[in-house]
Structure formats: C-alpha cells, structure tokens
Amino acid sequence: MSWLGLNGKTAVITGAGGGIGQALARAFAGEGARVVLLDRDEERTGPLAAELGNGAFPLVCDLSKADDIAAAAEKVEAEGGADILVNNAGILRPGPLESVAEADWSAMLSVNLTGYLATSQAFGKGMIARGAGALVHVASIAGSQPQPASGAYSASKAAILMLSRQLAYEWGPKGIRSNTVSPGLVRTPLSEPFYRDETVKAKREAMVPLRRIASPEDMADVALFLASRRASYVSGQDIVVDGGLSQTLMGLVPRPGYA
Questions:
Q1: Which of the residues 153, 169, 233, 258 is marked catalytic?
Q2: What is the H or E stretch that residue 181 is in?
Q3: What is the pTM of this model?
Q4: 3-state DSSP call for residue 193?
Q5: Catalytic annotation on 116?
Q6: Tens of pLDDT along 55-95?
Q7: Which helix (H) or strand (E) holds 71?
Q8: String of b and e for 65-96 (b: at least 16 CB within 10 Å)?
Q9: 10-187+216-238 maps to CATH 3.40.50.1000
Q10: Residue 157: in which H helix or E strand, if any?
C-alpha cells in the first residue's frame, strides 16, 4: 500500500500537458493513482498517458468551455468517479494594467479562476455524493505578491486562494478538503527562455534563499501530500513553495551598516 494512501485512487489533473502538469501526473501515477489527463492538446497528453499506464487516459478539455468540462466529468464519473482533482491549468496574457484589454483580462479569469470553480463543481459533485474527496489548486506567490505587467494574472491567483478557502469551508462538512500550492520561480518549458540567459538565471537564483530555481517536481511533491491521507486534517490552507523567496522583502530595505 502507498504510504500516502493514493493507490487505486483516481486523480484528475487539469493542464496536464504543461511542465508542472506532467510532473503532477508522473508523481500521482508513481504512487499508484489512476491519472486522468485534462488538457486542450491531446498531442501532449496522449503519449504521457501511454507512458504512465495503470489506466491513465487523456481527455481534451478547454477550461473556458463549460461543455468540455461537463463532458470530461461525465466520462470520469462513468469510470468510477474522481477522488482527487488537481486544478493546474492556467494562461498568461501579459501587459500593464493601464492598457490591458478587457478581452485578455476576461480570458485569463475564465481559465485561471472560473475554470477552477467549474471543474470543482463538475468533479466535486461525485465526491460530495460519495462523502470524500480532495481538491488541490495550483495558485502562485503572485497571488499575494503583485506581479507587474501581467494583466489579470495576480488577481486571478489571489482569487484562487479565496476560492479554495471558501470550498474548504462549504464542502468540509461534505467530506471534501480543499488546499492550494503557491509556486515561486519554477523552471518549466514555458519559462525556459528566461533560464537560457545565464545572467538572468544567476540573478534569479541569487534572489532565492535556497539558491536554486524550483523544478516542477518540487510542486508535485507538495500536491501529493495535500491530496493524500497524510493531510487528512489539512483544509483551507496555502502552502508556499518558493525556496523562501517571499520572505526576502525586508532584506531589500536599506539599513546603516549593511550592504
């Protein structure tokens, strides 16, 4: 039996084709869970499902489309239902707030926030009926530390933190736990161009007290814990996984006698 108690559980992962999504899928499969891979691009999740085995399967799902989410939830419920939902999908349409287009703002909120609620409702229905389930939402330190020139990104991530807490409050009596993981700097295929620049990479590493940039696996390890029986009394919490970066603000304040 898995030490985490995930053997035989069904874990639905949104945005499963991305860097963190793939790490999540491999981590849950490695603990014996059957993984359902939701993504807009089946070309990325099809081969991953074949790699994982153990009944893993991909589903094409655009979180901005209610019909896609409903169809995915219906398919999973027909296969026995979800025990775990990891909300990981997200998009970024950068730009300063003074000129951000309403269409870009709305698109980000549609996926990054409304999509999280819609999937929680769709897959949570079966969890509520069975009286048990775990929700894990990938947020960001940008939800508590404003990220400039990023349009609705910080606002959407801040809202995810509150959505998770509200789900924990409302659904706790129904046997459902809800928590968030807030990554800091993570090296993924999406962020790889930044780290190809050795100067930028070195400056970013120097900002982090642990002196390294996170891997997607660092996020997956925390999500595993939050979804597992080892976190059976943890709900409504946010675990920041940033190597201590968000604790460095006061170190930027000049003081006499310090460089």
A1: 153
A2: strand 176-183
A3: 0.96
A4: helix
A5: no
A6: 999 999 999 999 999 999 999 999 999 999 999 999 999 99
A7: helix 66-78
A8: eeebbeebbeebeeeebbbbbbbbbbbbbebe
A9: no
A10: helix 153-171
